[in-house]
From TrEMBL:
<keyword id="KW-0777">Teichoic acid biosynthesis</keyword>
<dbReference type="GO" id="GO:0016740">
    <property type="term" value="F:transferase activity"/>
</dbReference>
<keyword id="KW-0472">Membrane</keyword>
<dbReference type="GO" id="GO:0005886">
    <property type="term" value="C:plasma membrane"/>
</dbReference>
<dbReference type="InterPro" id="IPR051612">
    <property type="entry name" value="Teichoic_Acid_Biosynth"/>
</dbReference>
<keyword id="KW-1003">Cell membrane</keyword>
<dbReference type="InterPro" id="IPR043149">
    <property type="entry name" value="TagF_N"/>
</dbReference>
<dbReference type="Pfam" id="PF04464">
    <property type="entry name" value="Glyphos_transf"/>
</dbReference>
<dbReference type="InterPro" id="IPR043148">
    <property type="entry name" value="TagF_C"/>
</dbReference>
<dbReference type="InterPro" id="IPR007554">
    <property type="entry name" value="Glycerophosphate_synth"/>
</dbReference>
<comment type="similarity">
    <text>Belongs to the CDP-glycerol glycerophosphotransferase family.</text>
</comment>
<protein>
    <submittedName>
        <fullName>CDP-glycerol glycerophosphotransferase family protein</fullName>
    </submittedName>
</protein>
<keyword id="KW-0808">Transferase</keyword>
Amino acid sequence: MAARRRRWLEYALTSIGSLTVLLGCLGHALTARLTRILGRDDDCWVFGARRGSGFVDNSRYLFEYVAEERPEVRAVWLSTDPETVATVRERGYEAYHARSLRGRWLTLRSGCVVVTHGLRDVSLALTGGAFVANLWHGVPLKTIGFDAELGEQSWLRRRAHRFVAARNDLVVSPSPMAVHQMATGLGVPRDRVRVLPYPRYDPLVVPEAVEGGTVDADAHERLAELRAEGRLVFYVPTFREEGADLGERVDFAALDGLLCEQDAHLVVKPHPYERLDRATDLDRVTVLDAVDDLSAVLPFADVLLTDYSSAFVDHLLLDRPQVFYAPDLDEYRAERGFYYDYESLVPGPVAPDDGELVTSLEEALTEDPDASRRRALRETFLTDTGVRPSTVVFAAIRAGLDDGVVT
């Protein structure tokens, strides 16, 4: 009986989600017609991220750049989270609740919409006729969108998402090797995927340009204190299951012993939907669960420890050792799938169990044996523009607006 109720609940939630997308598509089509008559203001840009839930990722860094360096453009952050709106305002920027009258009006009037996941970061229904810049939120190592779970949805839901995907006028890929994957996974024409650096690379490439720009000053202070005591290893795992405890996947006690020997410290950055409950008795393990923006703190990582997260691509810009812990590689490959051959791509040892993880991490802290491999991947995988990434992305969006081509 419980299993049947659970199936019905899942079906109901799926149906509601499909209906919401369909209504959003209809609203988008109507506002597109309306704004062809009324017009939009190309000097007003609205920004959002992660379904409106936070002030993070590529949208955040481009927003800060535009607000601080491009006075000719009115930059507005929209969010469905009141705390996020308050945080952005406290930092001196313009922000509104996405569903407030002011937020809805600005969405209808803005000439450009900048998002990290999709139009629902701001509003699907009210963005018709605007230039849509989807900056995305990572290099697709594992399959995404239509190449993953979305491809298994109902025909109607797939059609609705195809409609939404076609509204993207510009999609950013930081790597020429990921253009095809971005196009097929997100369902956008390949010519709309531009090879541009992610704005969230700003603190990694030109840290002086964004000095003091972190949302969580307390976290920065804590990390600075830890780094003064020794090197920092950042563990940034891929999301697996909501509510999961990372302590059930990793032997943190064994790592704690190694870190004591190497005078290093492990900083664990769980996914927002996961946790680590077993760090209180460990001397060299700190949980960084209050920080939502990895780019702001990644420069503190002397060594990156991850599994299938594209955070390793960002970390390449720092030219520091990386270790990969993948005890469920075969299972993950069978269930989710990769665009690349995982073992050949990642620029560091792949540890299948806790014992090899300790060994690989010790080598990374003492020898850095994969430095040449890491640098070769950086040269072939990433495009170096030589300037602040946000300036490049801003110029591309400005050029798209000036061309006047909006889908």
